[in-house]
Amino acid sequence: MAAPSTDNTCREEADTTTMERSIRERVPPLLTDLYQFTMAYSYWRAGRHQEPAVFELFFRDNPFGGGFSLFAGLHDCQLFLRSFRFTHEDVEFLRSVLPPATDPAFFEFLRGLDCSGVTLRSVPEGTVVFARVPLMEVAGPLAVVQLLETSLLCLVNYASLVCSNAARFRLAAGPRRKLLELGLRRAQGPDGGLTASRYTHIGGFDLTSNVQAGFLFGIPATGTMAHSFVTSFTSLEEVWPRTLVAVDGDADPVDVISLTKGWLSRVCELLGATPGKIREGELAAFLSYAIAYPHNFLTVIDSYNVGCSGLLNFCAVALTLCELGYKPVGVRLDSGDLCALSVDVRRVFRLCSEHFSIPAFNALIIIGSNNISEESMAELNSKENEIDAVGVGTHLVTCTKQPSLGCVYKLVEVQGRPRMKISEDPEKSTVPGRKAVYRLIDADGHPFLDLLCLAVESPPEAGVALSCYPVVHNSDAVSITPAQVVCLRQEVFATGEVTQPLCSAAETRAKVQSSLQTLHPRHKRLQEPDTYSVAVSEKLHNLVTELCKGSSSDSNFLLAN
Amino acid sequence: MAAPSTDNTCREEADTTTMERSIRERVPPLLTDLYQFTMAYSYWRAGRHQEPAVFELFFRDNPFGGGFSLFAGLHDCQLFLRSFRFTHEDVEFLRSVLPPATDPAFFEFLRGLDCSGVTLRSVPEGTVVFARVPLMEVAGPLAVVQLLETSLLCLVNYASLVCSNAARFRLAAGPRRKLLELGLRRAQGPDGGLTASRYTHIGGFDLTSNVQAGFLFGIPATGTMAHSFVTSFTSLEEVWPRTLVAVDGDADPVDVISLTKGWLSRVCELLGATPGKIREGELAAFLSYAIAYPHNFLTVIDSYNVGCSGLLNFCAVALTLCELGYKPVGVRLDSGDLCALSVDVRRVFRLCSEHFSIPAFNALIIIGSNNISEESMAELNSKENEIDAVGVGTHLVTCTKQPSLGCVYKLVEVQGRPRMKISEDPEKSTVPGRKAVYRLIDADGHPFLDLLCLAVESPPEAGVALSCYPVVHNSDAVSITPAQVVCLRQEVFATGEVTQPLCSAAETRAKVQSSLQTLHPRHKRLQEPDTYSVAVSEKLHNLVTELCKGSSSDSNFLLAN
């Protein structure tokens, strides 16, 4: 792959302390909505702040018009919970913004807060998930779990969105083409870029241009040169040193300028090209780069004109390197009709390989990188091209098709009693009660339905028929028989500690691939996928009905007056 | 405005040290593309790293199909430049990712790097700007100014985009309606949320929900309660304390439960409402909040049903507060037909005011906040409604209409000689040479053309006709006479220091308003605006022509062989 990294093996991630510091810096506990504090104060004032409460996090629609999403951001949430504490400075700031009526003792309470009373149950990071399935359950003291809302949403929303987007690009590209994430400069803020690098790698990208993502997450970083490097040179006079030592020859430096000029003549002759249209500055840039990094020679060849200049200059320098025993890496195309250009370039590589008997020219790679969208990625499968690797920036990291996932965080239980928001907009009503979530698998090993039950119900059993209600509005009961049943969530944080090992980016990336593997292709289609079923158990269905009618004791209408 | 902040006066920003630390944490010098380092190494290896070079930053199209953009992110760029330094840990990481061929002395060079040799000339932050006008000029040692590319782009791109988006929402809303930014949970990463809060305030929003934005930038923060607060209550038994002291009455606490029940009866009677449909938990939530923050009573009233429950409960508690001498603030509507609901709510407020002789009910505010887009904001001007303030999240902060601005950073000069990228895609060609940028103003005080000249040219003069070439491809020369000429850029960073005072968010916000004020309405139209003219001087036009032909000595074709 593109120099300097030559494979996509992950390096070690930074140690957990560095990661945790990074989270504390990116997500300080004040990075939240003010109303979390006014609500927490009201709970505290009413003596309700310690009441056990349960929130659920979910999204309402699969992103990008697709049939699935990937769940991501959990690792950051776990570190966030572990480090959640207000500093003296934080509390003093809150004292200055909350209404003067706030009892000073509340600030003492905040000063002592942490997440030791919070339990997080979650779908494993990197799992394929669906709209309306509660992905995380956050249980703990009412005031604390309320305070966590905005931060957890912020950490899950974009991570899951951009990871899902990357997975779609990967599906569009097919399994073999290398995918490079190049989005940092176009990301929504510096951390948008960093988060994108992590979660697009998890979603299926191989390499990133982002050095900090390499540093923090061990993602292999890649990149060689921009057009500015090429255009900064004007003349071969600027090349220095002007010599290179052959890989396994004697130690006498070889004059590469002369050597390259010779190769350029032969290339021009072979291709019938006009030397008069070749840019000298471009040749100087390529030579300078080759002299600096002879093992990593990969250049952008469209700063002027690919056919008349860039490709000829590349071939001349690459042939020089080959003569000295080095293996040039390849080229990047960054404008024009990438497919057509790549075919031309490959033809020239093959011709050179054959004519000059240089087999290394058959291993050269071609990278394409010009405003690639999911659609243009998919087109690579239908149009003739020779592109080995694709660099994607804007459309990947900013998720132009749908730049927000819309996760929400809803209260479902207080003091062991189910809570529900019954909106005039049915889409905005919530499913009450503490739940267990099961993924039902069919006889072919494909998941076919996610079932939400009350936590107190006994789990569905493999091979046993059960009746349930699809969450689609006003659906009738259906009967289904799973071949296997998987409990979808597990406890990942409790008593102030992370209770499942934190997954590295590489581990979660592997999880994504295996989770996507089991999903039936009809749900993975990028256009018009089949809808995956999500249903509630009969007991949960009955509870919803009761609460909507107000007939449950936990949904009192004010009858006494 | 929405409690607890009662106006939109900015607080003090955090001190510069805190801001600079925040930038260092958000934008460490490794948060960049790897190729910046491979290029820097090649320059260093060739002995070219100290050559004086000039880059320009600009975007190619005004965002959102609009006629203008706002320039933002400069403040962060200035702090970034001032603090730009590699730590030992950074350099050791780079040593591990750059190709093994990298000369160890290069890492010593990196260790000693800073921006003391860099000069930044920039359009002032908050200025109305247009596509293809170079907004920043970064001059300094070639290797250093190359290394800055990704970070500067990342800091300007999203800041300018989201600031421009906010300005469009402000234009759509008109000058009087209060605008609240509520986007943190839907932002692209935590810092996307923080950046959005700063730059949407600068672009014209009044308040934010984001506490950290209040802490760092002094932006007034707002917010009272979510639906979860309302649904967490089930019964009036949960209200505690159950008393409140009147504002200027005697100190005897009053039983507000009884008082509220009395008011609720009277409200139901007045409105002919059915008490049996009123949610007791909602009333308990409102009462608890009122007891905690009697001066800041603003509730969300659609957790169940506005007309049958939320509005009645609000009125009862608000009337109780009025009786005790407090001034309730208002309500928030978060679902359904906001316009129609607001009209109903206002009617009830007026009725209560009149019937119970409570003038404070005429001052109650109504906030709307349900997936507001630029279009739905504009609709508020044509549909009957009583919405005083609008809360906007997703569409504002993620810029759903166009989630990336696409700023680029192009080399225009090395060693005093102009550089140019001549792409096969004319859109991707650059305008060479170090420039001066002038804004030409017409006799009515409206800017009508931005003129790019070579830095060495004498500036255009007011009242003197000049000939220039619009940047639209292949345009003929036009003759124009400005009434006034403004030099658009100024030096803001040099010799390692910020040379213009850093502007606070409040100052830049004022600049935005005055800059937008002078722009002719035809360029401000949200749909199909007139295109603002950008042109190059004759001298610059001639230089482009020369370089394209390769006839300039700085654009050598390889003639010798």
UniProtKB/TrEMBL annotation, chains A, B:
Coiled coil: none annotated. It is an enzyme of class 6 (ligase). Residues 434-543 form the Nicotinate phosphoribosyltransferase C-terminal domain. GO terms for molecular function: glycosyltransferase activity; metal ion binding; nicotinate phosphoribosyltransferase activity. It catalyses: 5-phospho-alpha-D-ribose 1-diphosphate + nicotinate + ATP + H2O = nicotinate beta-D-ribonucleotide + ADP + phosphate + diphosphate. InterPro entries: NAPRTase_C, NAPRTase_N, Nic_PRibTrfase-Fam, Nic_PRibTrfase_pncB. Keywords: Glycosyltransferase, Ligase, Magnesium, Manganese, Metal-binding, Phosphoprotein, Pyridine nucleotide biosynthesis, Transferase. One of its GO terms (cellular component) is cytosol. Pathway: Cofactor biosynthesis; NAD(+) biosynthesis; nicotinate D-ribonucleotide from nicotinate: step 1/1. Pfam families: NAPRTase_C (PF17956), NAPRTase_N (PF17767). Transiently phosphorylated on a His residue during the reaction cycle. Phosphorylation strongly increases the affinity for substrates and increases the rate of nicotinate D-ribonucleotide production. Dephosphorylation regenerates the low-affinity form of the enzyme, leading to product release. Its EC number is 6.3.4.21. Residues 30-157 form the Nicotinate phosphoribosyltransferase N-terminal domain. Catalyzes the first step in the biosynthesis of NAD from nicotinic acid, the ATP-dependent synthesis of beta-nicotinate D-ribonucleotide from nicotinate and 5-phospho-D-ribose 1-phosphate. Helps prevent cellular oxidative stress via its role in NAD biosynthesis. Belongs to the NAPRTase family. This is Nicotinate phosphoribosyltransferase.
